[in-house]
Amino acid sequence: MRLIIEDNSDLVAKWAADHIITRIKEKAEKTDRPFVLGLPTGSTPLKTYQELIRRHKAGEVSFRNVITFNMDEYIGLPEDHEQSYHHFMKENFFSHIDIPQENVNIPDGMAEDVEKGCEEYERKIREAGGIDLFMGGVGEDGHIAFNEPFSSLQSRTRVKTLTEDTILVNSRFFGGDVSKVPSTAVTVGVGTIMDAKEVMILATGIKKSRAVAEGVESPMNHKWTISALQNHPHGVLVIDEPAAGDLRVSTYKYFKDIEKKNLL
Ligand code: GLP
Fold it and tell me: Is the whole model's pTM more than 0.90, yes or no?
């Protein structure tokens, strides 16, 4: 695993956006096949989306040949609901770039047959040739997408019941009213994320420091699903200084040193 420790969340966003743009361009040089990008919602990736939009408007990157798959969606919120992940993605990213509408995939939390929708989502990912780069965030309890603690590390797209902790944390987007937060969601599995050719997780702020430390330093385990990144051949965790706060000094020094040498 690579662990990139940047000074602040602006630099995390810049690193992540640079990385995505580099990968899109690398693939375009080799093939006409679309670049397949996995995407998260949440407050953490917002600055990365802003940076990608800025770079797109500056003519540095096009998303015309990019297919996206979002990680998750609440069950029971219509697409135009202010807190649906469909709405979030449209407002914060898709309506500002040149991605064709038909290239955007987000799990359907309103499907009549949600289980079938989950199978189809996995099939669509396979048909697109698999995900080239999956970007994600992490919950305070170490969950990736909505793979709550004790999710199988082999899990696929499915319905998950959200924990009280996640509902409480996410209620900030619902006016602080926990009763308004859906109790279930459709989420890609840990296995779905780990099948991507590359996985890049972002974590910023002191609230994520425990999840980062458990994810990097604990043996891989299903309590902190972020720890599955340890087993990925191309896993990269990009964090800011506050999110590094619970790492051992030796871990911190090791990764700082390695990345400094990477730049040489
Ligand atoms: C939700 C999402 C996750 C996200 C997490 C952290 O639970 N399902 O994909 O990583 O929140 O969100 P934030 O970046 O707002 O801290």
Answer: yes
